[in-house]
Amino acid sequence: MSDFIMPDKKAVEKTVKSLYKQLFPKTHSYTTENDNNNLPEGTKEQLLFILSNLTDNKEKVSEHFFGDLEGIKETLLKDANFILESDPAATQLIEVIAIYPGFFAIFCYRIANSLAKLDVPIVPRMITEYAHKVTGIDIHPKAEIGSPFSIDHGTGIVIGETALIGNNVKLYQGVTLGALSVDKSKASKKRHPTIQDNVILYAGCTILGGDTIIGRNSIIGGNVWLTESIAPFSVAYHKSEIIVRSQKDYNEPLNYII
Fold first, then answer.
1. Is the pLDDT assigned to residue 71 strictly greater than 90?
2. If we measure between CA atoms, which residue out of 131, 149, 137, 141 comes closest to residue 176?
3. pLDDT in tens, 166-214
4. 122 or 255, which is more confident?
5. How many CB atoms lie within 10 A of CB 54?
6. Where are the alpha helices (DSSP H) in 26-169?
7. C-beta of residue 219 within 8 angstroms of C-beta of residue 238
8. With respect to CATH, is domain 1-138 assigned 2.60.40.2150?
9. Domain 156-258's class?
10. pLDDT tens-digit profile of 121-132?
11. Which pLDDT does position 59 carry in this prediction?
12. In which element (H, E) is residue 218 found?
């Protein structure tokens, strides 16, 4: 369309929350009273309203998206069950769906990814940036993520645009799946790593580069920095030295600057 108009952020956020309630009606997570009162009430009508100035095929896009919605829900339920099975602190499925920020971020990603595949501009990024705002988890809508997928704690996770993630993958807080360098000329190339099936990425690990492949059934420990591939069934860990001394026999002064 020639006359591009940026969608209203509050309208997009309300649509995300409406979709969440539609898929999981027993939950009311991530809702506020500050919704856009000018937005239509029905979820389909809300999406059509947002798409009005973005595409000439808004009805067709909406039809395809809502046709895929039941499949998206089935995938999300697999994700939620995987989180439940993985986290000993989780007691029941409704708890994961209603209050876990990792699950909400996955929900936003899967909705945004579906719209991105329908060539909807801007809105997919707006959806995942909304998730980023409320959860601290930053997933690009064009990343490809298998199922089931688990995010535990989640704050500080970054998953780049061309990342490929297989099935049964677990991520903990502070994980980065990024590019080796920020170079605009590489925008059309694969810049982010591939994570194969059954991999666990522990807190704070950083994996960079489009050619970097983490082989299936591998475990990446906390704070590991990787820029090259590792074979399947590998364990990568960072070994650091921690020295514990008795204060009684320690004469060297300790200077703290705050």
1. yes
2. 137
3. 999 999 999 999 999 877 777 779 999 999 999 999 999 999 999 999 9
4. 122
5. 19
6. 43-51, 58-86, 93-99, 101-117, 123-135
7. no
8. no
9. mainly beta
10. 999 999 999 999
11. 95
12. none
